[in-house]
Amino acid sequence: MNTSIRGRSFYLTPILYYQFGKGHSQSWQYRLGAGLGLGYQSHEGEFVITNTEHSRVGERDRIDHSGYAITGGVYFEASYGNHIISLNGDLISADKSGSKYHYLENNVSLKYQYRIRLF
Questions:
Q1: Helix, strand, coil percentages, rounded to 5, for the chain
Q2: Which of 9, 44, 68, 110 is packed most tightly, with the most Cβ within 10 A?
Q3: What is the distance between the alpha carbons of residues 71 and 105, in angstroms, rounded to a whole number?
Q4: How far apart are CA 14 and CA 66, in angstroms?
Q5: pLDDT higher than threshold 80 for residue 96
Q6: What is the CA angle 25-28-33, rounded to 5?
Q7: Does residue 90 contact residue 106 with C-beta atoms inside 8 Å?
Q8: 75 in Cβ contact with 87 (< 8 Å)
Q9: How far is CA 81 from CA 8, 13, 29, 52, 63, in A?
Q10: What is the tens place of the pLDDT at every residue in 49-95?
């Protein structure tokens, strides 16, 4: 298709969480949280419209967008002893009034950690 869009996204999403099962390190403990924040995006380039419901499907178009956006995040963590598994999801969304496009970016990560306690 020979298209390219370049840009940057920066966002900060503070997460407030609650921890279940506080106490003994050799029992299951859980953290569950969510948050809202603010982000900034700057994107520019050319693309092909692939949404089959769009009236201009298959056509090339350009985007030149920059501005602030709302962000959201969720967090889940389960730990037992030194083992930790966590799932984190972030979403950044911008829809300027009068804009041709709605920008949506998401990120999901699944992580395993083994905690080593030295002191």
A1: 0, 65, 35
A2: 9
A3: 9
A4: 22
A5: no
A6: 105
A7: yes
A8: yes
A9: 39, 28, 9, 50, 49
A10: 888 888 888 888 888 888 888 899 999 999 998 899 999 999 888 76
Q: What pLDDT is recorded for position 33? A: 97
Place of tokens 């921890």: 19
Read off the tokens for 25: 């390190």
Which residue's entry shows tokens 């037992």? 80
pTM value is 0.70
Q: Whole-angstrom Cα distance, residue 6 to residue 26? A: 47
- Rounded CA-CA distance 41/99 in Å is 14
Report the distance separating Cα 60 and Cα 77, nearest Å. Answer: 43
